[in-house]
Amino acid sequence: MARHAIAGIEDIPPGGRKIVKIEGREVGVFNLGGTFYALKNVCPHQGARVCLGKVSGTTLPSRVHEYDYGLVGQILRCPWHGWEYDVTTGRSVFDPNVKVVTYPVAVEDGQIFVSI
Ligand code: FES
Fold first, then answer.
1. Is the CATH number 1.10.630.10 carried by domain 3-115?
2. Domain residue ranges in the chain
3. What 3-state DSSP class applies to 10?
4. 107: alpha, beta or left, given left = phi > 0 and alpha = psi -120 to 50?
5. For residue range 45-98, what is the model confidence (pLDDT) as tens digits?
6. CA of 58 to the centre of ligand 1 (A)
7. Is there an atom of ligand 1 within 6 Å of 45 CB?
8. Which of 12, 43, 55, 82 has the highest local Cβ count within 10 Å?
Protein backbone atom coordinates (compact mmCIF):
# COMPACT_ATOMS: atom_id res chain seq x y z
CA MET A 1 0.00 0.00 0.00
CA ALA A 2 1.50 3.31 -1.09
CA ARG A 3 0.77 6.72 0.36
CA HIS A 4 -0.06 9.61 -1.98
CA ALA A 5 -0.19 13.34 -1.20
CA ILE A 6 -3.37 14.56 -2.88
CA ALA A 7 -3.97 18.10 -1.58
CA GLY A 8 -3.44 20.57 1.22
CA ILE A 9 -6.18 20.73 3.86
CA GLU A 10 -7.05 24.26 2.70
CA ASP A 11 -7.88 22.85 -0.75
CA ILE A 12 -10.89 20.89 0.57
CA PRO A 13 -12.91 23.02 3.00
CA PRO A 14 -15.49 21.44 5.37
CA GLY A 15 -18.40 20.13 3.30
CA GLY A 16 -16.22 20.05 0.20
CA ARG A 17 -14.71 17.31 -1.90
CA LYS A 18 -12.01 16.77 -4.46
CA ILE A 19 -11.83 14.07 -7.11
CA VAL A 20 -8.28 12.87 -7.70
CA LYS A 21 -6.64 10.16 -9.78
CA ILE A 22 -4.32 7.77 -7.95
CA GLU A 23 -2.67 4.82 -9.65
CA GLY A 24 -5.26 4.98 -12.44
CA ARG A 25 -8.22 5.02 -10.03
CA GLU A 26 -10.54 7.96 -9.42
CA VAL A 27 -10.96 8.70 -5.73
CA GLY A 28 -13.28 11.20 -4.06
CA VAL A 29 -11.83 12.86 -0.96
CA PHE A 30 -14.48 14.43 1.29
CA ASN A 31 -14.12 16.81 4.22
CA LEU A 32 -16.82 16.17 6.82
CA GLY A 33 -16.38 18.70 9.61
CA GLY A 34 -12.60 18.63 9.41
CA THR A 35 -12.20 14.87 9.02
CA PHE A 36 -11.24 13.53 5.60
CA TYR A 37 -12.57 10.37 3.93
CA ALA A 38 -11.57 8.76 0.63
CA LEU A 39 -13.95 6.67 -1.49
CA LYS A 40 -13.37 5.01 -4.83
CA ASN A 41 -15.38 6.85 -7.46
CA VAL A 42 -17.30 3.72 -8.51
CA CYS A 43 -20.82 2.84 -7.37
CA PRO A 44 -21.20 -0.88 -6.56
CA HIS A 45 -24.60 -0.89 -8.27
CA GLN A 46 -23.80 -0.17 -11.92
CA GLY A 47 -20.50 1.68 -11.80
CA ALA A 48 -21.53 5.34 -11.83
CA ARG A 49 -19.05 7.98 -10.65
CA VAL A 50 -20.68 8.00 -7.24
CA CYS A 51 -18.45 10.69 -5.75
CA LEU A 52 -20.08 13.26 -8.05
CA GLY A 53 -23.38 12.73 -6.23
CA LYS A 54 -25.11 15.07 -3.82
CA VAL A 55 -24.10 14.95 -0.15
CA SER A 56 -27.05 15.31 2.19
CA GLY A 57 -28.82 13.38 4.94
CA THR A 58 -31.27 10.50 4.86
CA THR A 59 -34.43 9.25 6.47
CA LEU A 60 -33.71 7.25 9.62
CA PRO A 61 -35.66 4.27 10.96
CA SER A 62 -38.65 5.70 12.78
CA ARG A 63 -42.11 4.87 14.09
CA VAL A 64 -45.20 4.82 11.94
CA HIS A 65 -46.35 8.37 11.05
CA GLU A 66 -43.01 9.79 12.17
CA TYR A 67 -40.33 11.15 9.88
CA ASP A 68 -36.77 11.33 11.17
CA TYR A 69 -34.16 12.92 8.97
CA GLY A 70 -30.53 12.65 10.06
CA LEU A 71 -26.88 12.08 9.20
CA VAL A 72 -26.99 15.47 7.48
CA GLY A 73 -23.86 16.13 5.45
CA GLN A 74 -22.76 12.50 5.75
CA ILE A 75 -24.78 10.70 3.07
CA LEU A 76 -23.60 10.48 -0.54
CA ARG A 77 -26.37 9.85 -3.06
CA CYS A 78 -25.36 8.18 -6.33
CA PRO A 79 -26.29 10.40 -9.28
CA TRP A 80 -27.62 7.51 -11.39
CA HIS A 81 -30.23 5.67 -9.29
CA GLY A 82 -30.05 7.34 -5.89
CA TRP A 83 -28.47 4.62 -3.78
CA GLU A 84 -27.20 6.23 -0.60
CA TYR A 85 -23.86 5.64 1.12
CA ASP A 86 -22.38 6.79 4.41
CA VAL A 87 -19.25 8.75 3.50
CA THR A 88 -17.59 7.79 6.80
CA THR A 89 -17.76 4.04 6.10
CA GLY A 90 -18.67 3.64 2.42
CA ARG A 91 -21.57 1.38 3.48
CA SER A 92 -24.98 1.78 1.93
CA VAL A 93 -27.81 2.84 4.19
CA PHE A 94 -30.02 -0.07 3.11
CA ASP A 95 -27.56 -3.00 3.36
CA PRO A 96 -24.22 -2.87 5.19
CA ASN A 97 -22.90 -5.54 2.83
CA VAL A 98 -23.19 -3.14 -0.12
CA LYS A 99 -20.24 -0.80 0.11
CA VAL A 100 -18.21 1.70 -1.87
CA VAL A 101 -14.47 0.94 -1.58
CA THR A 102 -12.78 3.21 0.97
CA TYR A 103 -9.13 4.11 1.48
CA PRO A 104 -7.20 5.22 4.58
CA VAL A 105 -6.59 8.97 4.87
CA ALA A 106 -3.98 10.73 6.98
CA VAL A 107 -3.25 14.40 7.54
CA GLU A 108 0.29 15.55 8.33
CA ASP A 109 1.71 19.08 8.28
CA GLY A 110 -1.39 20.40 6.50
CA GLN A 111 -1.16 17.80 3.74
CA ILE A 112 -3.75 15.10 2.98
CA PHE A 113 -2.46 11.62 2.16
CA VAL A 114 -4.48 8.71 0.74
CA SER A 115 -3.12 5.16 0.90
CA ILE A 116 -3.89 2.75 -1.91
S1 FES B 1 -25.09 3.14 -10.42
FE2 FES B 1 -25.16 4.03 -8.46
S3 FES B 1 -27.19 3.66 -7.79
FE4 FES B 1 -27.09 2.72 -9.74
1. no
2. 3-115
3. helix
4. beta
5. 999 999 999 999 999 989 999 999 999 999 999 999 999 999 999 999 999 899
6. 16
7. yes
8. 43
